[in-house]
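TASK: fixed-backbone design
INPUT:
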């Protein structure tokens, strides 16, 4: 059972801080993380309801579209490029993984075009929500926060929530002296600070 929240910090206060946490102002986001960390009961509930793995239908679309980047028919390849572009930064990790597993030069070139476009986009609200929310859970680090991280870590292998939550749990385990076998507590690719 979590500790009682200090008097004076309401759910509405938490929602206000969550809005700042997911906004474009990195300084305000950093202050929001500090404020929410001081009120873990409200903070963990907000993170649990707002940080969500990629829906199954979008994961399926990403997987199929990446496969179709190598299709023999040009119109299917073009549709795949269009679909992946329309998904914004969501396919990033799956594209990075696919690029290392494919040897066709033309396939890698198409993936590189998509990754370059993603890198040029401003950080999306969804990405800020996912990564900063996971940072908040890691900073809180109590049993309730770990439960949410463990749930997120069970997602699809290329989901940024899965990757970030897994890295957060490894760092927490490392700090507590319970480093997972075969790990060293170092961040996994894709989990750099988004409070930038």
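OUTPUT:
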């Amino acid at each position: 059972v979590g500790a009682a929240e200090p008097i004076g910090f309401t759910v509405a206060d938490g929602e206000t801080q969550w809005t700042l946490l997911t906004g474009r102002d990195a300084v305000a986001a950093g202050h929001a993380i500090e404020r929410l960390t001081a009120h873990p009961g409200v903070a963990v509930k907000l993170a649990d309801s707002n940080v969500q793995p990629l829906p199954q239908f979008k994961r399926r679309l990403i997987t199929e579209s990446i496969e179709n980047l190598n299709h023999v028919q040009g119109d299917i390849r073009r549709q795949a490029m269009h679909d992946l572009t329309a998904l914004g930064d969501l396919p990033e990790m799956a594209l990075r993984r696919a690029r290392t597993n494919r040897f066709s030069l033309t396939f890698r070139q198409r993936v590189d075009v998509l990754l370059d476009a993603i890198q040029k986009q401003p950080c999306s609200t969804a990405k800020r929500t996912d990564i900063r929310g996971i940072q908040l859970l890691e900073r809180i680090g109590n049993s309730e926060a770990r439960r949410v991280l463990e749930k997120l870590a069970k997602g699809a292998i290329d989901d940024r929530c899965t990757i970030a939550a897994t890295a957060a749990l490894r760092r927490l385990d490392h700090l507590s002296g319970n480093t997972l076998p075969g790990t060293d507590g170092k961040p996994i690719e894709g989990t750099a600070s988004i409070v930038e």
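COMMENT: Confidence is low (pLDDT under 50) at residues 180-196.
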